[in-house]
């Protein structure tokens, strides 16, 4: 009887050890999976003004006849989030619905400017229907050409001194926010930040080994 209890205890401890090893393996795999599926920022297109370069300066009129400066020294020390959209772009419509919440969250540090080109009547109808009156909306073919806009939706972050800080194609909220995060991190993109962190970790390994 006593020997049976000893055997059962040994078996239970064996099960506990095996479960512990399985948990450690799962934690490791979760970490690897997280690195593989971690959020990817906006797709940076290597066209137009480079990140760090001076943004082309424009002074335009929006759909409500307000003067809108894009580029150059900002009047109120805020960064500019320049968002290129189109009334016929379904992804643009989805992302434009997110702008009020982004403005509420980031409005102290960013002003959001919408940009497009084409017939004004079409854009005015879209502007009203989408409830975008809170945002400047400019029509300028020259502005799009200056940034080499080929696909939409596309966004550019310009700092208060008129420098391009981040840019890229955006397809979801994470992409929009990644441009803001990249600017705050002082990087051109989230991808560059991740690569920088990986390089930093790789450089730290030999130093840790020496100690």
UniProtKB/TrEMBL annotation:
PROSITE patterns registered for this protein in UniProt: THIOREDOXIN_2 (PS51352)
InterPro entries, sorted: AhpC/TSA, MeN_DH_accessory, Thioredoxin-like_sf, Thioredoxin_domain
Domain called Thioredoxin: residue spans: 49-185
Keywords: Membrane, Transmembrane, Transmembrane helix
Subcellular location as annotated: Membrane
Pathway entry: One-carbon metabolism; methylamine degradation
Annotated protein name in UniProt: Methylamine utilization protein MauD
Organism for this UniProt entry: Cupriavidus necator (Alcaligenes eutrophus)
């Amino acid at each position: 009887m006593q020997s049976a209890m000893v055997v059962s205890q040994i078996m239970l401890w064996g099960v506990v050890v095996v479960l512990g090893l399985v948990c450690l393996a799962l934690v490791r795999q979760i970490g690897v999976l997280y690195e593989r599926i971690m959020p990817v920022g906006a797709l940076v297109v290597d066209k137009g003004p480079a990140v760090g370069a001076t943004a082309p300066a424009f002074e335009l009129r929006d759909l409500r006849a307000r003067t809108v400066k894009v580029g150059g020294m900002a009047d109120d020390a805020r960064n500019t989030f320049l968002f290129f959209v189109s009334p016929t772009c379904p992804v643009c419509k989805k992302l434009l619905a997110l702008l009020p919440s982004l403005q509420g969250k980031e409005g102290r540090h960013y002003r959001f400017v919408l940009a497009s080109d084409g017939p004004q009547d079409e854009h005015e109808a879209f502007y009203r229907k989408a409830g975008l009156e809170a945002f400047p909306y400019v029509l300028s073919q020259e502005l799009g050409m200056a940034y080499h806009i080929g696909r939409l939706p596309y966004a550019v972050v310009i700092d208060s001194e008129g420098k391009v800080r981040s840019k890229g194609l955006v397809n979801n909220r994470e992409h929009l926010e990644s441009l803001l995060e990249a600017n705050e991190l002082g990087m051109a993109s989230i991808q560059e930040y991740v690569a920088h962190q990986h390089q930093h970790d790789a450089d730290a390994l030999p130093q840790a080994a020496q100690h």
